[in-house]
Write a structure and sequence with these properties.
Strands 15, 16, 17, 18, 19, 20, 21, 22 and 23 form a nine-stranded antiparallel β-sheet that branches. A six-stranded mixed β-sheet has the order 3-2-1-11-12-9, with helices on one face. The protein is of the alpha+beta class. It has two domains: 240 residues, Metallo-dependent phosphatases (Purple Acid Phosphatase, chain A, domain 2, 4-Layer Sandwich); 135 residues, Galactose-binding domain-like (Jelly Rolls, Sandwich), CATH 2.60.120.260. Helix 1 runs parallel beside helix 2, helix 3 packs across helix 4 and helix 3 crosses helix 5. The relative contact order is 0.09. The chain is built from eleven helices and 23 strands. The longest helix is centred in the middle third of the chain and has 24 residues. Strand 20 and strand 21 form a beta hairpin.
Amino acid sequence: MRYAIISDVHANEAALRAVLTDANDARAEKVICLGDVLGYGPDPVAALELVYRRVHVCLAGNHDDAVCGRFPVEDFTDFAAEAVKRHRAAITQKAIDWLRHLPYTCAFEGFACVHGDFADPKHFDYILEPQDAVPSWSERSEPLLFVGHTHQPGIFVIGASGTPHRLDGMDFTLEDGKRYIVNPGSVGYPRSGACRSSYCIYDDQSRTVFFRTLPFDLDTYAAKMHGQGLNEAPWMLARAAERRRPAVRGNAKFGVSKPAARAPEVRIKRITPALRETSLSPLREKGENRFLRWVPALIALGVVALAGIVAYTLLILRSMPKDGTASLAGSSVQEVPPAPPPAQPAAERTFAPPRDLADGWQVAFEAPGEQKVVIEYNEKKNAEVFRIEHAAPHTVRFTKHLSLRPRPARIYWKVETAERRRVGAQASFQFTTHLVYSDENGVQVGREDGGGKLSEKKDYRVPERAVDAVLSIDCFCTGTHDLAVPHFADHPSVKKTGVR
């Protein structure tokens, strides 16, 4: 069997997805995470949900234990402690409970895994030097051990001489009479000079360990961190500066500009000669004379059709008795009141690619140049809000994905308008919601639509085969509005996030 050994994701969803995709291409049959899914990074919810869904065995890391309260943060740096606080506020109680039950070690045929070291797994000691590896070898009997925690890919080996050595990460085959400790490096927060995601593949048939390294989008990662009001670690900024290359050419925009939306014209007083000339010019290019020859015939056909409709209507009215029925060709037709006009269908809207917000939410704009959403603190609500600023009437879409494993009985969401401000003489706000459920194969198995003008909260029963849910909130507004960070979860409690 082939095992993918990953470690230290640190809330970097993009890097984790790239590693899992690469592991699948490498034909890995099981994925083992050595811990620290959380800590540091900008995507705690998405990374945790992805690990829960795709990873077969996940061990506890010190950052995971700190978030769920099993490990103190007194020795953490200010940056790491702040991330622990932020991640704890972002995840549900169910996630906290799951983290609290993560094991510290796991063992398979011929190898074992831990986050820090095997001598005291709950204390999370580092294995940095060859002598640091000796206590773990003394604790375990397996010839191959996997550890994480240091973020530095490498191999510790001991043979007949009894002297341990450290080697850089490289592909190798286990030899009889030797023992190994392998650190796969970090998926989402690398501290090696290459600044790439790193993990291992172990093939227990050939007894071979393969080191895999992948690049990830460091610029987007840094932008997400700063977008949440956080400063990145100095070493990460240094790596980004090293990898940055000057542009070969200046910036350019090659897309067709979207014209500003205009209200439809409802009155036309007269057609000016210039307008008539413009309207007919395409016909002249394609043969105006041939078209005009058919105009009299079309008019005559329309007159005949209109006359037939009028005659038919008069026949019905003359045959209509006072009891509200009419006999026509031996049949009875019951008079019914006219139906109300059908509702105007919503126009198809096109949105720019979504951007990440707080708490797993994403935002997409219909008119990016005329719309803006920022995360600010609202003193009246004592909570963070999504501040929507629209100069013209357009739609902004907020979306969030929720994993339903294990499947809850009900699902809850809440949207609340925190504050409204007027721009000029007009300000309006209304929203619609779309909750879509899908099964294991991504097929839709349920849908709920709703919405209101100011605030709304709902709870729905989860369909039997649903394993994922996506909530979309389309806000159509002008002016400036504060939308309290929407609630979307499998439990009804709503906690205000407060100041970070």
